Amino acid sequence: MRILHTSDWHLGRSFHRVNLLDAQRDFIGHLVRTVRDERVDVVLVAGDVYDRAVPPLGAVALFDEALHRLADLGVPTVMISGNHDSSRRLGVGAGLLDRAGIHLRTDPAGCATPVVLTDAHGDVAFYGLPYLEPALVREQLGAERAGHTAVLEAAMARVRADLAARPAGTRSVVLAHAFVTGGTTSDSERDITVGGVAQVPAAVFDGVDYAALGHLHGCQTITERVRYSGSPLAYSFSETDHRKSMWLIDLDAAGAVTAERLDCPVPRPLARIRGRLDDLLQDPQHARHEDAWVEATLTDPHRPDEPMARLAARFPHVLSLVLDPERTPQDPLASYARRLRDRTDQEIAEDFVAHVRDGLGPDDAEREILTGALDHVRLAAAGEEAGTR
């Protein structure tokens, strides 16, 4: 069976001040042509269809267009909700859409009810695991502990139980939206940390032939059977070096996986440039970036006059300006920036406690209080977006 694995469309998202709806429409057209030209048997969309729980009307219209074009091809599509989606809103009409070959899986209770498709070698069961917010689904799934690993383990236990009851030789594919250990992040992914831990081991997906993952925006291979397709477009300058693509997966009669990367259209290249303003404006090496979307980091010791206007004279598509003045190692601001770099919210909060108490950091009980407070804030935001409040 030939499978096209995509994820993280983020319909309705902008890139800094640039509306990406036309670029997203171009991707949908590319997706449809790929399905037709490559004779794809099933399309997978592993979450984050929309960029936010209440998407703008233009994004909804594009989603509607995408569903009609995929349905017109007569090729089934299996789609799950991600942490950016409202599972309730995305899942409206799922029963009716099933009849058109569009299979929306947004309810955790249905994670062990697969979409079963058949090829010349027998059945393939596609299990859709929507984004599982631990605090919201733990009891529903009967997870023994809190946290991403526990709820995914509980969901996968249900998947394996259903699969075990099916005819011998039934092949299996799981769609999931999660942060799997070994994956590489970018700045455009929303944090899903719970209790300081967001990652789950790839072994959670043992027992199925292929795990089609969403959430991380870089296309990557965790194992031969566990892969991220990544987002079809770049949504932050941290993705400057990404090769945006989809996975074309061939699943043979025995469940062996063959994978090929298919490139997605690039609306405009990205570039990150760094240096003093005058150097950036004069250096001939930057000529290749004059038609790119540019993030410029200025290292001038003092902020230059009208830096964006001057940069735009050479780089008309400059979108982001970062000021990072050259500092001596003794500069207290340089030391502060180094301390914060790559630190989690939990680590920063614990460092603050130690700072105000003359080096005495939080004990275990205080650390648990900090963790609970941070989780409460993050969970409240997640609950509002999911429509649970």
From TrEMBL:
Entry keywords, A to Z: DNA recombination, DNA replication, Endonuclease, Exonuclease, Hydrolase, Nuclease
Residue span(s) of domain Calcineurin-like phosphoesterase: 1-218
Where does the Nuclease SbcCD subunit D C-terminal domain lie?
267-355
The organism's superkingdom is given as Bacteria
Record carries keyword Nucleotide-binding: no
Which processes are annotated in GO (biological process)?
DNA recombination; DNA replication
Task: State any single GO MF term.
Answer: endonuclease activity
Oligomeric form and interacting partners: Heterodimer of SbcC and SbcD.
**Could you say which protein family the record assigns here?**
Belongs to the SbcD family.
PANTHER family named among the record's database cross-references: COMPONENT OF ATP-DEPENDENT DSDNA EXONUCLEASE (PTHR30337), NUCLEASE SBCCD SUBUNIT D (PTHR30337:SF0)
The protein's job, in short, is: SbcCD cleaves DNA hairpin structures. These structures can inhibit DNA replication and are intermediates in certain DNA recombination reactions. The complex acts as a 3'->5' double strand exonuclease that can open hairpins. It also has a 5' single-strand endonuclease activity.
The entry's protein name is: Nuclease SbcCD subunit D
- Specify the species: Streptomyces telluris
- Report which gene this protein is encoded by: sbcD
